[in-house]
Amino acid sequence: MNLLVKQTFAATVLSTMIAGTVFAAPSEAPPAFVKRVADSLISNLKANHAQLNNRAAVNAIVRKNLDPNVDAQAFTRIVMGTYANSSTPAQRAQFEKNFRATLIENYGSAFAKYSNQTYSMRPYKDTNAKYPVVTIDFNNNGEKIPVAFQLSDAGSQWKVRNINVSGIDLGLQFRNQFAANVKRNGGNLDKAIATFKPDADAAVNKK
């Protein structure tokens, strides 16, 4: 399965609401939000195709298009799992910083291989779920790879809090990877956070 397509968004993940503060609901419908993010990323890759052999340039494209649309605090808690409850705010902040940086590198490597893949959106049914899910089928040389985006309401806009690729829950797989890293470091959470490098390819090939 093509690494680029499997890793197209990575990312999974969670801007929390400030207690006692009232926000306006997102003005976009969930599928409109996902389509806008996907179209923006693809158009930027096409426009900068000549620079895709430059890792720094690719990482900048990924960061520009994905960072503002990912619920990072939620992603941190999803991936840290039970360790999120026993960690300090400083440890969670460091985990989020390191995790985002390594994901950018992970996905940047995949995007460098971009070769005009296309996608189609599946019909969306609004069920008033707390975390709406929008699914896209990425088309790669005749192969359809479903990518489901789970969204959270960040007040003024939707954000991506988790991703499911071909039936594989990336948040859960990254959580398992992190838990294994904690064990390798003898339960030392600081060392586990400092050395954790999420492997998206291993996650989506977990079947």
From TrEMBL:
Q: Which UniProt keywords apply?
A: Signal
* Keyword Endoplasmic reticulum attached: no
Signal sequence region: 1-24
Return the InterPro entries for the record.
Answer: MlaC/ttg2D, Tgt2/MlaC_sf
Classify the source by domain of life. Bacteria
Q: Does the keyword Acetylation apply?
A: no
Q: What PANTHER family does its record include?
A: INTERMEMBRANE PHOSPHOLIPID TRANSPORT SYSTEM BINDING PROTEIN MLAC
Name assigned to this protein = Toluene tolerance protein
Taxonomy of the source species: Bacteria, Pseudomonadati, Pseudomonadota, Gammaproteobacteria, Moraxellales
